[in-house]
Amino acid sequence: MLFGIYLTLKILGIFNKQLSKRFTEKEFTAQIVIRSANIGRTFKFANGRLTSLRGIKENAEVTLEFADCFVATRLLTPPIDFLQQIDAQKNFQLKLVGPDELTHWFTQTVMATRRLGWKFGTPLKDSIVRYTTNTNGGPLFVYVKDEKIIRVGPIDFDSSDASSWTIKARGKSFTPPRKTTVSPHALAWKSLVYSPDRVLTPLKRVDFDPNGERNCKNRGVSKYVPISWDEALDIVAGEIKRLKRDFGPGAIAFSHSSHHSFGNVGYHLSAFRRFVNAIGMTGVHHHPLSWEGWYWGAMHHFGQSMRNGAPEDYGTTEDCLENCEMIVFWSSDPESTNGIYGGFEGTIRRQWLKELDIDFVHINPHYCETAAYLGGKWMAPKPTTSPALGIAIAYIWVTENTYDKEFVEDRTIGFGEWRNYLLGEEDGIAKTPEWAEAETGVPAKDILALAQKWAGKKTYLAAGGGTGFGGACRNATGIQWARVSVCLMAMQGLGKPGVNFGVMQSGTPVNLRFYFPGYAEGGISGDLEHTA
Length: 532
Hints:
The protein has 532 residues and is of the alpha/beta class. It has helices at residues 2-15, 17-22, 69-76, 82-90, 100-112, 189-193, 229-247, 263-266, 271-279, 292-302, 316-323, 334-337, 345-355, 369-374, 386-400, 405-411, 415-423, 433-440, 444-456, 478-491; strands at 28-34, 39-46, 49-54, 62-66, 94-97, 122-123, 129-133, 140-145, 148-153, 167-169, 172-174, 203-205, 224-226, 253-254, 282-283, 326-330, 359-363, 377-379, 459-463, 500-501.
């Protein structure tokens, strides 16, 4: 098999100009080794030619090692199954050693033998080729002519694409349109690509000299000039060395996105952590700022950390359409915030709710886009006072005996302490609607009406812009708001038909047989071929 790889590369290099040109790019020796059999073959790239010898070379710049012949055969025989590659990497059956630049080049060269001749994109009339791309504002078709983007737009599905799911609820059938939805900012990607203000190279402040006067007082004042990547690398490396030499490794702070970063370098479990540990650093720990109140507060009420404090949204779209009677949008304006990931998919699903005569309540200091779109009752508490409003609702349920006593008895703990707090037995202050009115500015009669209506209907709580993401959980009392939200839903039987967290942004039917590698599994970060 190893000789076959050499033979394939050799023959294709003769007849394929692209591969032949690739052979001229590097000069080094790589080898493929079968660990258990102690056999291997070297591949030497020099003077634009490829030569190969049987055996193992101790000083080869790149070594691709398989645990045994079975693993090598399974992973190198077309068609390539990337899931098997990921599994082999995770179980140390596949190892790649050498400088990143060379290991990347070698593995891509070997894998090119199965990609040569591939054509990407769909040819259209007028010499236009249509490609697909994914953005955080929704997936797009990208139309290209003469290697220039001429427009982007939503993806239209045809018969070759997977069929759409359908939910049947209350005598109606709901199916998403055969077209993706995108956010306005996603449709601006062409403009971003060709913007004259796009930064294409590193920039350096004109009066900054890393080896002389730094003029720190001019930060934000002086202009910047483009520099080469090599110069930028020298500056950054020099500054790391200077700080470590003069002040110690603790003087170097390393930060990162609180939501992680994709790719081989930025992701927590890949090169980032290895790099900062190698040079020493003071780590900056970010809490999950998108759902911080849930992380620090709600997690302790859920009694588990599977979703880091956020509510579970699996299957909620179907349940909401079938069983829900009222939705309370609390600090939730998904019509304004839904474009961050899936375009306007959630808008379509919320339109379905309007067809089912579901009641809507909006708790928000502002009369927001979602309230205007869906209609319903609007309540406007003072900012940061939502915990008091929720506590008063719980007080009403306790005093009117309208909470789910069986659920509370069988599936919760600590209700007695919660009840005592609500009734004022702990601090002498009963958490009445009148008490909450003074805190929130919401009339006591409206709080009473909401509590009674909520207790009488199967209710979904749309907390934040997503299921637990965004909204009041980010403000000064966000931890308490998230805590009381979980307590309220538990008092009404969280997880029973029609009673759950959800905003119709997620929780749609999924095909559980479809596998998509997660962050730590190599499919998005850290795969040996560096193609993520």
